[in-house]
Design brief:
Strand order of the largest sheet: 2-3-1-4-8
Strand content: 5-15%
Structural class: alpha/beta
Largest sheet: 5 strands, parallel
Oligomer: single chain
Distance between the termini: 13 Å
Shape: globular
CATH class: Alpha Beta
CATH superfamily: P-loop containing nucleotide triphosphate hydrolases
Bound molecules: adenosine-5'-diphosphate, zinc ion
Length: 214
């Protein structure tokens, strides 16, 4: 099964993608996590990507597309995957579509996690991220068992630099301009499914499972 997660920054894509990955035993692929790992390791790609990420802008397609295609060509992706944060532009979606078509394959579902902008800024200021394993928490809604420590790998949790309120506003504008058109794009292909992302994490997940099992 090949699944794309759509939704504004902070809508809960990563949270749901991880739950899907665990339940269906497929990899959770987050381009944001891949970029953050590169920044942490000081790679050339990381240096380039950071310039854009810190401003709340998208990393250019040239730097993003090949990285993603390489990742999904990996052996562990042969039974499917859940993409979180890719595609974010129509050209990215077109490349993915062309690549899958070449392989006689396709995306099964684009799951749109719908959360209004008003809720987003509040969510982001409470987000805490593990840069080692990619797990995310929320200080009020989804706290880790021990404050500041990742339940999964024991690393320290951080507030992402790009989760500062001013940057979140930029990311929301970028989302509306460049990413939201993908909702129509996948609707036209007949694979768009929308869930109410303002509900509890567990309720959102139940709605997604109903869709995937239908
Ligand atoms: P969020 O969890 O808020 O949706 P991500 O972790 O997915 O954020 O992405 C963080 C940043 O990484 C984005 O603001 C953008 O700069 C960059 N990024 C991630 N995925 C992509 C992509 N597919 N295309 C361009 N930039 C990306
Ligand atoms: P995205 O990947 O779309 O940027 P995340 O999955 O990182 O979003 O979620 C953003 C923040 O909101 C995190 O702090 C996360 O713990 C929290 N969160 C995720 N889902 C919910 C939910 N259903 N209700 C409340 N908070 C949530
Ligand atoms: Zn961790």
């Amino acid at each position: 099964m090949k699944i794309i997660m759509l939704g504004a920054p902070g809508a809960g894509k990563g949270t749901q993608a991880q739950m899907i990955a665990d339940k269906y035993n497929i990899p959770h692929i987050s381009t944001g996590d891949i970029f953050r790992a590169n920044i942490k390791n000081g790679t050339e790609l990381g240096k380039k990507a950071k310039e854009y990420m810190d401003k709340g802008l998208l990393v250019p397609d040239e730097l993003t597309v090949e990285l993603l295609l390489d990742r999904v060509a990996n052996e562990d992706c042969k039974d499917g995957y859940v993409l979180d944060g890719f595609p974010r532009t129509i050209p990215q979606a077109d490349v993915l579509d062309a690549e899958l078509t070449k392989l006689g394959d396709k995306v099964d579902f684009a799951v749109n996690v719908d959360v209004p902008d008003e809720n987003i800024v509040r969510r982001m200021s409470g987000r805490r991220a593990c840069l080692k394993c990619g797990a995310t928490y929320h200080i009020e809604h989804i706290p880790p068992k021990q404050e500041g420590i990742c339940d999964k790998c024991g690393s320290e949790l951080v507030l992402r630099a790009d989760d500062a309120p001013e940057t979140v506003q930029n990311r929301l504008s970028v989302y509306h301009e460049q990413t939201q058109p993908l909702i129509d794009y996948y609707d036209k292909k007949g694979i768009l499914r929308t869930v109410d992302g303002t509900k509890d994490m567990k309720d959102v997940f139940d709605a997604i499972v109903d869709i995937l099992n239908a």
